[in-house]
Amino acid sequence: MEGFPTKEQIEEQLDAKVNKAFDAAIFQTEYDEKRNEFKLLEIQKGLHGTLSDEKEDRFETLYEELNDGCVTVDTLYEYRKILERGYPPEKVDSILAYENARANVAGQTQTQKFAGYKVLFTKDEDGNLIVKPFVEIVTDFSHPVETVFKEKILVGEAPRVHGEELSDIDALQIESLRKSLRENPAKKKVAKPEEKKEEKKEKTIKINSLIDTHGIKSTSSEKSEGPGIVSMAIDFLFDMFKSGSKK
């Protein structure tokens, strides 16, 4: 029976993963565009249960492209070893505590599934490297929207419960989710077609405003800022779906 890998073997495997992701790093603007498209398709697939063959192919292609510039590991030991390559010890401890809190809470929910500890490499407009550690949480949209949103909030607030200060992006996303819950469309009167059209237009403006205000130029390597702004924008789009776009 093959034994467990040695520390040296683990280090070599991690070095190979980091070098591969580093070489595959794309511009942050390109990454955000692809992730935005991917999340839209993910929501459509979750809501309707399937995608057309063309969209399914695009969905799988985008998933692969988005992960080319990522290092993904399953254990905190491996995650620590990767983070130690670029952060001081106290920063590593803070990132691990923050992301592990989210991963642990996700494991206790119905709709939020832990999909690995990740470090994303992208480049800014000048070609400088951007490093973003985050934990990937995959949403199961087969559950009621209210359950999805409430459990997203639980996961998002997990670091604060454990004594960590929330990043600005996570705090904004939580507030957008709470707002969506407060504005539960099931309690609203049915809007006329022209009113629905205007409402969608207003929400599209909100999405663009969010991206412009908190977009890629303000990104940093701070804990959990990952692709959060895209997720926050998608929450508004998801709100459009549950408000009457689902057919």
Structure report:
- The protein has 247 residues and is of the alpha+beta class.
- The chain is 62% helix and 12% strand.
- The protein has helices at residues 7-23, 28-48, 53-68, 76-83, 89-106, 145-161, 168-182, 193-214, 228-245, and strands at 26-27, 70-73, 112-123, 129-139.
- Strands 1, 2, 3 and 4 form a 4-stranded mixed β-sheet that branches.
- A hairpin with a 5-residue loop joins β3 (112-123) and β4 (129-139).
List unreliable stretches of 5+ residues. 187-191, 203-247
Strand content: 5-15%
Terminal-residue CA separation: 53 Å
Query: In DSSP terms, counting alpha (H) and pi (I) runs of 4 or more, how many helices?
Result: 9
| Main sheet: strands, sense, barrel | 4 strands, mixed
**How much helical structure, as a percent, in the residues?**
55-70%
Number of strands: 4
Oligomer status: single chain
Question: C-alpha Rg, in Å?
Answer: 19 Å
